[in-house]
Fold these 4 entries.
Entry 1:
Amino acid sequence: MKSILFCLLLLVLVDVSQAQDRIALLRDTTRLGISPHALQQRYPSALAKTEKERSKAAFAGRAKQFLDTANAFNQRSYRFMDARRKRIPVQGIFVETLEFVNANGTYDQVFCQFSTDTLSSEQELTFLTLLAEWYAANPFPLKTKAGFWCENFIHFGSPKQKRVAVRGPGIIITVADAQQTDRPDTVKVLTLNQLDLVSIPDVVYRFPNLEELDLSKNQLTQLPARLTHDLPRLKRLSVLRNDIPDDSVFFTKNKHLTALNLQGNKLTRIPSSVRLNRKLESLWMGNNELSDLNTKPLHSLRRLNDLNLYNSSLSRLPASIKRLRHLTVLDLYYNKLTTLPKQLGKLKRLDQLALAYNDLTELPPALAKLKRLRQLYAHHNRISQLPPVFTRMRNLQKLDLGNNWITVAPPVLASLPALSDLDIAGNNLQEFPTVLFSIKPLKRVYLGSNPLFGQEAMSSPYAPQIRQLQARQTEVFY
């Protein structure tokens, strides 16, 4: 086992080392004998800057898809850097990059220019090392025939943000006020966010009627069991964006905590003690590096209806997901899923399912068993069609399939009797989707950034069909 782990670590180090060789400061290109101009002649630009260049651009006809993907990709880079904020020598630094991307999405060469010239050589090296890690682990999601080049910005952390805390009756927002109040029994909400706390102050336990405790954006490394033991009315607890690792989250058995936010910590699994919150309804675990999902701590939580696994590095969902039968909301945005287990169809109470920004090539027929599903978000994947059995989804009202690989609108759309909001923008539609005329409840449809649609849509041969939809009180966005 140790030898396998060593080999995996070696592969990661090799990838980062190779990426470092391809990353250079723009000012050093002459000394290194590298010509950005020559590379710009070899690679097509991502988007055309003039009408004359349009046909040569790598994403000609797919501009919105590229821009949406690039924006989402940049958001992911912010989260990547934020998770490594303790390694960033100077906060709030922007780096302007000139990126040359291979056809498969890997990076051939990246040239960097920092937003300040006050960095030391050591600080620059640290930034370049972080960039090398990012580019090695994150190829660009869209593939092309000949690669492309583009300009970009990456943000390293940020200066300390101004603290935001809601004020009002029954709310205390500082440790000093918590210590000084002579009516602790009247306090329902304690907001101690962004105070650089490294541990939970004892003053928290002064408030017997406390219902909400916000400890987000501090530097906590442990969540003690005393919170649920000594605060018998605590319903909502947030430790968003702290530094809590595995085996440092503790709860006592209780029936009062209903909402728990563990987002943005250093967790690689769902803490086993979560199961002791017997009436937990909402669990947010996003922005942790879960990689693999063990749902066992959740199996006994019969009131859990909202599970957030946003940006958790998940490459698969276990079959045990079927045990979470009470879920009504499941958020799987920004993961690495390539397939979905058929057991998802067992979540019969599901009302909202978010699958956007993954690597799915299809949606499983088993989703048709989700008879109560009203909202399905599957944009920014690689889906080309829908299973015919989706005709069973009688309550589906909103379906977002934007930025996928659809060339012909799925015929099954005509058989969705509740569908009122449809997004198929950013695909590769080759003909007008006449199936839209068969969707009687349709109120809004998004068609932009397809080869057939753009700002000129109303002067195109498809203008009569668009007007026909509008005459039926359907808003058409192109």
Entry 2:
Amino acid sequence: MRQTGQDETRGATRTGYPEVCRVELDRPLSWLAAGWRDLRANPIASLAYGLLFAIAGDLITIFAWRNGHLFIVATSGFFLVAPLLAGGLYEISRRREAGLSSTFFSSLAGGRRNAVELSKFGLLLGLIGVCWERLSTLLFELLAPGLPADLLALLAEIHFPPENRDLLAIWILTGGTVAAIVFAMTVVSVPLLLDRPVRVGTAILTSVRAVDANLMVMAFWGAIVVALTALGFLTLFFGLVVLMPLIGHASWHAYRDLVRADAGESSSPHPEYR
């Protein structure tokens, strides 16, 4: 069950930001179950998004597999912006919660309600992706100047100089830090932007506060997302046809659990958000 901490309640009152809630450790399992119900209730629209994710992953593989660095950057960049790309899945779950059916095209309409702020957020995520690519290249150039800026090349020579293994560890640690920051920024921010007419800064801060109030829960949820995504990778991206809609729908229910609804609010607080 959802539990609202007293400190979060006072903070929301002082600042006017949406109130975040504390939840039980096992709530991510309930989010997955609710996400699965959304997927089953809207299979065509949901799986259409999953198919787009899978096709994008396969296209990245086809065109970038000969260039390991390009492949890694494209893949990591793709999943950095995945929370924004999953906006249609959040919209399907929002509409189902409001008692409305959805098609693929009707789910696209959700992005028009707060288009300016969503666009700003997309640009921010894109900028983070570019910065990660530059940082990744810089790490290779500083720590292994004789090695191409290519993780696949590094893996091929991992049994040679110890500094290559050190580079791999530093690269993974740095990438994990970037991923954790993006996760904290996005875990509820995109659903919030779709659900309420808030600014992108408010959405990001609310997301970070929700993570801060539920560190163990968010670590568990993050591990589930990573595991399901890795499973999708192992199936040459075709598993993403089902797994990405499942994660997307579950993320909507995570948002509804972690961000307290306004008084009298149903699924959305304004008529234009229905």
Entry 3:
Amino acid sequence: MQIDIQVQEKRFYLQSLKIKAFCQGVIASAWAGRPDAEISVVLANDDFVHALNKQYRGQDKPTNVLSFENEGIQAGDIVVAYGVLKREAKEMGKPFLTHLAHLLVHGTLHLQGYDHITDKQAQKMEKLEIQLLKEMGYPNPYREV
């Protein structure tokens, strides 16, 4: 699989100089789709994510992660907002990279057709997120810290 990482928001490098390799490893571990798939990741600032969220979801605010699923070899795009991610990690008492891993797994599952619109869908997706993150050595992201 091919994973293209674009670091638009340079503050991601403050968290890890190997941020691209980190993201590639997490996504590759969570991917169960086509082996020839291509995924694009943008590590962005809040303003960029805010504009996308408003345009595509009608939400006039930034969010932590957006996923845009495509069909075929180009599986889709994952966009992560630095400021929202950093604030959420701090509020939850979690390390930045641990929360980033969760958001990347979450986005990758969306690209594979998972969703959380209904309670049943959410339970299924959360269970898989917990399992995948555990396999990578991360704690349950839904457990209170």
Entry 4:
Amino acid sequence: MEKVRCLIIGSGPAGYTAAIYTGRANLNPVLYEGIQPGGQLTITTEVENFPGYPEGVSGTDMMDDIRQQAERFGVDIRAAIATKCDLSERPYKVWFDNGDEVEAETIIICTGASAKYLGLEDEKKYNGQGVSACATCDGFFYRKKVVAVVGGGDTACEEATYLAGLAAKVYLIVRKDYLRASKIMQERVLNHPKIEVLFEHNTEGLYGDNGVEGVHLVKRKGQPDETHYDLPIDGFFLAIGHKPNSDLFKPWVKTDEIGYIITEGASPKTCVPGVFAAGDVADPHYRQAIVAAGSGCKAAIEAERYLSENQL
């Protein structure tokens, strides 16, 4: 097995930032980019809220910039996906789908979280052209426009409320005849003059020649009074949750009921000494690139301290 001092699993803002810091600290880190090199930002529209880009930047270009910065400090970046790990004792062992087998003194987990989609082909067709899973990231582009949010929980209500501060009109598409959100979030949505809740509605598809121009809806699906109609909109936001990419590590680290890795307080430390988690895989609340980058920095600093304290 190949032996390394610091292994980073996953890319995106957290992974690449951890790579920059560990590379500068001469830890000779090895980073495996995983299933989506660059993370979720590579499938978003223009990023305007990340410091250092006054004119905005595409998510792909920004991740390329940060990746190149990591390479500048000698980080060994590889294209492969982790398939198995053993964190029972140090050095920790990780296997990859390209045949690599690595023993690491420290591991930084940056595998992210994937937004849940409805499973419609149109979601893929219009991804980045009117379909988004992050209102905070993309809401600005829909100022004074009409948008729809899918979901009935706290996240959907928060997204709808946020978008209502920007858009001219927000439709909240709810499959059931009630909201699952907390009472206070329900009140905010139901009493907001710009938000209209469409109860008992399902999305059947999207339409538009140059991006999303509307949504195909069905009301009271399967009922005698089932109704199909089209609703003109400019943007379609998914808010039905995220799935942390933590399954590989669940036998070893603590996670919450959804799967987010639990760390010690505000630190990136997991319950396994020398194993750290950064970015969206350990962040159920913010899911922002700048927050992920900061957590990658913290994980790298902690990894360096761990190696130093244990004379590894």
